[in-house]
Amino acid sequence: MGKVSIGINLEFVRHSDKPFEWGVAKAAELGYEYVEPMVHWGRELLSEAGYFHSVSMLDDPLRIRRACQKAGVRLSGLSAHTPLTKPEIGVEYLKQAIRFAAEAGAPVVNTDEGPKQPWTSVAEDHTLIKYTLMEASKVAEPRGIRIGIEPHQQYSRSPKGFDRLYRLVNSPAIGVNFDTGNSYLCGHDPLRWLDAVKDRLVHLHAKDISVEHSNKERGKVTGTPVGCACGDGVIDWKEVIALCRKAKRDIVLSVECGTVEQAGRSIQHLRRLL
Q1: How many domains, the chain?
Q2: CATH number of the domain where residue 49 is located
Q3: CA 47 from chain center: how many Å?
Q4: What is the DSSP letter of 64?
Q5: Contact, 56 vs 47, CB < 8 A?
Q6: Please, which pLDDT band fits residue 1 given cuts at 50, 70 and 90?
């Protein structure tokens, strides 16, 4: 039986125009035990100027570790989404993210298959994804890092398609980062899907979907960046927690919402259920 804890993806401060360290401190202030930072390649203006929460993988990984230690929170994983269908990007991006996670102290690196090229076939894409994941798994295995594959794009939008991706590479490093909101918006029952993958679960994106959002986009999209506050939407969090408690390892519910205010209401709701 797995322990269930509450964390938050730092996307909740995306519109606050604040740096990474501010986001970590705010998460701790709200009462979160874990944070999931987003990392990127290279350098870009907003995060360098302190107006965005993402951290460059050219920075020292200890920057992340120190910020978490100062705030009194832990890392649930890194958000390192890169197109697995494009190995010229995905292979080196994931390998660097895994090495970065190992030194920063994050046990999981989360990703998805990403948007595909318009000229590749389904079979070709799965070969490319297999190559990317195999290369990444060889770096992750000796470091004890899990790669959390998330349902988010064209091939992972159904349980059958998602399972095909998961089984491309037979490695203990490959796991599931389940997203409650994406699975719902794809048109599926997130509880039934979560139950089917709970033995492979390494991380969970706790994303709720408002009724308005559901009415507008369900069955028309493969996912969404962030949801509403947990408890304000359609997801049954009591049942999500019950299923996570049956997982083989401890699971962090990493809340994915869009504002600081939503983050505050999310943790209040989830705490009552835990």
Answers
A1: 1
A2: 3.20.20.150
A3: 20
A4: H
A5: yes
A6: low
Alpha-carbon span 273 to 150, nearest angstrom: 24
pLDDT of 25-52, one tens digit each? 999 999 999 999 999 999 999 999 999 9
**Mean pLDDT of all residues in 114-133:** 96
What does the alpha-carbon distance between residue 67 and residue 248 come to, in Å, rounded to a whole number?
A: 29
Cα distance between residue 184 and residue 43, in whole Å: 34
Contact 229, 265 (CB under 8 A): yes
Q: Give the integer Cα–Cα distance in Å for 85 and 273.
A: 38
The type of residue at 105 is G
Domain that holds residue 114: 4-273
Within 10 angstroms of residue 249's Cβ, the number of other Cβ atoms is 15
Helix (H) or strand (E) holding 206: strand 201-206
The angle that helices 190-197 and 237-244 make with each other, rounded to 10 degrees, is 10
The residues, ordered by sequence, that sit 6+ positions from 239 with a Cβ below 8 Å of its Cβ are 191
Q: Quick one: angle between helices 62-71 and 87-104, nearest 10?
A: 50
Mean pLDDT of 258-265: 98
> Per-residue pLDDT tens for 204-239?
999 999 999 999 999 999 999 899 999 999 999 999
| Nearest alpha-carbon partner for 159 in 132, 114, 120, 191 | 191
- 254's enclosing H/E stretch is strand 251-255
